[in-house]
Write a structure and sequence with these properties.
The chain has 138 residues and is mainly alpha-helical. The protein has two domains: 1-33; 43-135, no CATH class. The protein is 60% helix and 0% strand. It has five helices and no strands. The protein has helices at 3-32, 43-53, 57-71, 107-122, 125-135. It is globular and about 30 Å long. The chain starts with a helix and ends with a helix.
């Protein structure tokens, strides 16, 4: 092989090596960030949002107990048998669209809808929790 052929082969290899290194570096930087950070909400994040929306301690505690039993604070929780969805297990889940089009992924929207439901049907989250305790559902 001539030197010029070797150089032509070596240059693409260097370019590929540099590209692979850059991709690996970018991959490491991307993996350090949470996956789908804008749509994935942890239980603690959802609780913090609810706490801001429900400043009264007794009402927050009642709301929290219901959500803990219904979904474990999982925004994406789905009941396989009924189809109930979200933090407050709305049935059907798309009822929460009345609180916002982002009802599938936004804990604030789900909390807003759940609070409205509890207030309109039971008078408050505490009323909803009392009903839940007596019936195992709300």
């Amino acid at each position: 092989m001539s030197v010029s052929v070797i150089r032509r082969i070596a240059s693409p290899k260097k370019a590929l090596t540099a590209a692979a290194l850059a991709a690996a570096t970018a991959g490491m930087a991307l993996s350090a960030a949470p996956a789908q950070a804008s749509t994935v909400t942890s239980a603690s994040q959802a609780k913090a949002i609810a706490h801001k929306m429900i400043p009264d301690a007794a009402q927050f505690n009642a709301f929290s107990k219901i959500v803990e039993h219904e979904s474990g604070w999982d925004v994406d929780a789905t009941n396989a048998s009924s189809g109930a969805y979200g933090l407050v297990q709305a049935l059907p889940g798309n009822k929460m669209a009345s609180a916002g089009s982002d009802w599938k992924t936004n804990p604030k929207t789900q909390i807003e809808w759940g609070l409205d439901y509890m207030n309109s049907r039971y008078g408050s989250p505490a009323g909803a929790w009392a009903f839940w305790q007596a019936n195992g559902w709300y």
